[in-house]
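re: ur question from the group chat, yeah i did fold both. here u go
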Amino acid sequence: MPMRPIVLLILFLALISQAADAETLDLERIFASPDLAGPTLRRAELSPAGDRVTFLKGREDDRSLLDLWEYNVAEDTTRVLVAADELMDGDVELSEEEQARRERARIADLRGIVDYRWSADGRFLLFPIGGNVFVRDMQSADGEVRQLTDSDAFDTDPQIAPDGRHVAFVRERELWLADVDSGETRPLTDSATDTIANGVAEFIAQEEMGRSTGFWWSPSGEHIAFLQIDESPVAVTRRYEVQADTIEMVEQRYPYAGTDNVTYRLGVVQIASGDISWMDLGDETDIYIPRVKWLPNSEQLSFQRQSRDQQTLELVVANIDSGETRTLLTETSDTWVNLHDDLRFLTEMPAFIWSSERDGYRHLYLYDYEGEVIRRLTDGPWQVDALAGVDEEMGMVYFTGSEVSTTEKHLYRQSLVTQSPEVVNRVSRRSGWHEVGMDADARVYVDTFSSSRQPPQLSLHTVDGERLAWLVENRLDDDHPYGPYRDGHQPTEFGSIVAPQGHKLHYRLIRPAGFDPERRYPVFVHVYGGPTHRMVTDSWSRRLLIDQYMARRGYVVFSLDNRGVERQGKAFQDAAYLKLGQVEMPDQMVGVDWLRSQDFVDPDRIGIFGWSYGGYMSLLALAQYPGDFAAGVSVAPVTDWTLYDTHYTERYMGRPQDHPQVYEQGNVMHYAEAMTDPLLLIHGMADDNVLFTHSTKLMHDLQARAFPFELMTYPGEKHAIAGEGPRLHVYRTITAFLDRHLLLGEGTP
């Protein structure tokens, strides 16, 4: 069937516009080096003394290869501290455990120095490369870097003692110790088996709880607390990972929703003697231990005990000599209790800081050691994101939060003796997104700032917000990698829509290049929608560049945050409880209806795209609202929640044996029979997070009713499809599919 003349004209004008632009932003450039965002910046940290800032930075010619850099405050100089290729010979073959750790940490595409730690005294920097552990003596005149371990085994998660004398690490599922001076190593545990591991963070701790380690040094450096996990209750799942030329059968203990989890023991090992004492975790074994933290006296250890249904979270303190415990406080909820890292035991007074969502928004409280509230520190219809630092001498607490807007993150401060918790002082000044790290005394902070207009910048500030120095200014000028495309950068518009039920839905919108209000444009709806992540933020990301690319191709780009997402109050999140798959798309359709009411939108050419939970949302869009979308793209989607893990799924849906109807209503296949619109399904064939089975079940269901859809699979790729070539191929495939259905409007040839 011939194309409509008006569509041909629009396409011709778009091509002419692109030809006139000497520097066309294309996918090849987005994924090439140097990074269009400027230097790849990770893990900016102040030294314990606050005299220097260290950070990981990607090479200009290879943004995935990271070196360790420093900014010296006294000298006002920035330099490479440790170059990765000086310590490694070519690419390193990672162990399966390390590959899994990096996938969990979303750094599977990075190489070189991907992690580091300071000793508490500021003398040593510790970092792993190629399965071995290295230390740099900051007091050495020549900047000596020594290899501390050298083993055929892959040493992971190295952590240096606060006194700088020893380094602990995990080797072959056991906890080991290395002497920094002599380099001598010895095991601290010897009980590991195929199912028992010491000092290791289990799968769901890394993936869902935000805990990447399984051991913790005492402040004195004399003890290490560690979790011993027993995976034997978790059934072995046999699944296939399809590589390019082989098919590997993987046996993985994957805790599907409703099935058994690992069990825990919490031990404390004395470094000098090797003796281990075990803490009393209580009679109930079907629990989670999401956090462990020492008290300043090194004689007591706290741990958080979370019930299986995640509706109860207890802060427990144990005496390491006797193992006896007492519960300091208990958080409860009719839905679920969100985890956080906002526990800080003070040293100048017998008190601690803790955050809670008990009044509907996460706020900070000061407690005494009897678990009684001394005073509330913050208040208001906004959320504390994270505790950033405490200056006990000055009596100030610093934190990031959403007081300005849900679309921005800022640094704030409050007095520890405040009588007005609703009045907080904003420290950061520029509108946008501030990721903050403070020194131990909370006297200066390092700020990784970005916005929808500015790629990430790294700077050092006083606690009054005054900038002391640029570490990486990353000025967006003609010499910046994004400089040639700066003039074509489309502004991001932020706004909100009130849903019929009365709740506010925030959105962001990018208009097409060369926008003409008299024309009607296709829409690229970029969706996520899951409880742990917002799309509508004033920040810079690779996602933003994809959206800019689509806007330059002639699309209106639109994202909306539906009920269930974080940072908008607990009630806004709680609306999704026992209703995953039921509340998200009604909210998204409020946004779609708003788009249709705009004169510049073609209501017949609205497409939707999402990855992971966003992929789930794309499928729900086509299945729950057939005929409303011209096309949908779903990458690595959840389709059946019984195939996802315990901690994430049960938090929002309960156990499938307790709520079978909830799982049925959240299952894509429950609605898929109504699907009529063009679908592109994409999945990595070695995905160990959202298993490939999610997509194969959907494929089988759609094929059983002879529904035509397009499919692209990636041999050997995990959930992120992180390979540089494959990731480029993903977006080429997505763009071609959407262009065919939305720009040309002709459907599948």
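okk and heres the other one u asked abt
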Amino acid sequence: MSESRVPVAESNARERESRFARLFAAEVFRQREHQTLGERARHAYRQLQEVHRGLGSGKVIAQDLPSLFALFEWSAMLAPELFLVLSGHFNLTLNALLSLGRGRTDLEDYLRELDSGDSVGVFLLTELGYGSTVFSLETEAEYDHDRRGFWLTTPRDAALKFMPNVGAEDVPKLVVIAARLKVAGEDQGVFPFILRLRGKDGGLHQGVRVVPQPERPLYAMDNAMIGFDRVWLSFRDWLPGDAGSISEQGVFHSDYGRRERFRRTIEMLQTGRVALSCGAVASARASLSIALSYARQRRVAVPDRGTAAMLECWNVQHDLLIGLARIQACTLFGRFVQERFSEEGDEERERLSLLAMLLKPYISRTAFEIIQTCRERCGAQGMFGVNRIPEYLGTCQAVMTAEGENQVLQLTAARRLVMGEHLRTPSEGTDAARTEGSSLFAERARRLRTRIAQGLEAPLGPGEDRFERWNAWSTEAIALAEAQGEALALECLQVALRAEVPSSEGFRTASAVLRVFVADGLRRHAGWFQSEGLLGAEEARRLDVELREACVELLPHVPRVLESFALPEALREAPIAAPEGYVEAWARRFR
């Protein structure tokens, strides 16, 4: 980034932070402790209306990626129920119309409703019988040439759409449906279609059946199963983009194969993956701030000294400081990918899809692990929703499955890595220096990639097919995607360290974070590194000592790391993070 751009970027970031602070100060975003999950799910739509009132045009929000990413992160921390509906509304519905309907005037009424928030957008992709296997979807949209439109049908139970948030009867919904297009009886692959599922009166479109699902104990959302019985769609409701066309004579044409057609109409998934996973990391940053606040206050019995702050105990300090280093790495990794997506246009983002597929599993899973650690270290306090941490666990669970289940994404990303696809890296085009030991992370990814490639290229055995061969290497493929994600996160820490002035406080903080991250990673993978001859026995034995020393180095820098998180003040409403202390905060409720 050039020097001339830095002040502008910083100014924009400060203005954005101020705007979101004002938005989330509204009463509708205050915690509601005694609502049921169903009530909270409906409340999310009131919060979405407030977003439109406070931020304005939905089209502007959807296309201004820095603001869209910020909206996901703020809502993940302060309005988890809203967080879960944002992607369907902005990324998958509004963006589908904007990208696939570019230049079309016949979709303006739909766009106006989504732009104003009068209707909520939801994406209907997965089915009861098909989750991530999207090329096997069975919902059908059969072209009727005489009437110039489509009949939308659920041919059997496995094709029931499962499990979009369309159960609330009093919320108008516009849905984008992935359905198999059939023209003159011939299957042309899966395309998106738009349908007004519920009107302002709450009534369902003729031929649609919605059955709400039971409440999930982990998060609040009005999920449902949806079936279609010859639902009529006009020709304008088809959203092919440039992937296909049907002539006036009823002849289908496309320049692409069926898989490529679907890929070209579903690119908005990539932005959603980045937004959701970075939101999960935001909730992990919030969890660490809350847990560290509590650990500084809570007194525990210790031999010879009577009591000490919980954070002085090595088991607590170890877990939270490792979490701090890992989440800082995930934060920087997320920022790197966000910036790449924000800089590229719609057409160029396909080149970044591999990054998104590596980012989401790595940082969302890491976020979940760190939030769970915070919950455990806070003991019983970590089980109360008012202290926020359990809510974050629920939303993280949803993120790990939404818009591409994590392991499925890892398998796809690993295949692309093995095939030699170019991967954009944080240090690409820079001369960022390697930290001692950190090159082992990149070497782990390289060796796994080489080993899998060699295994796949070997001659097939008697009766063996390509699926069996790939299936045999799937565990290693998942390990490759994880290793590559970890190596990218480490590169982000290295680039951040290099940006600091040597001998400055910022440099010392970044160096301490990096040291903990590397020591922890080497320790977690020590067995693999030893088996590969990359780590000696004595080096492996010393890793526990190195990690302890690294944590001691990081401890005085914790306030600076937390300050860099720029967390909302509203998080201090959690009793165990209250400025007056958790005892006083809880005692106030008792009085």
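fwiw on the second one: Confidence is low (pLDDT under 50) at residues 1-6. The two ends are 55 Å apart (CA to CA). idk if thats what u expected
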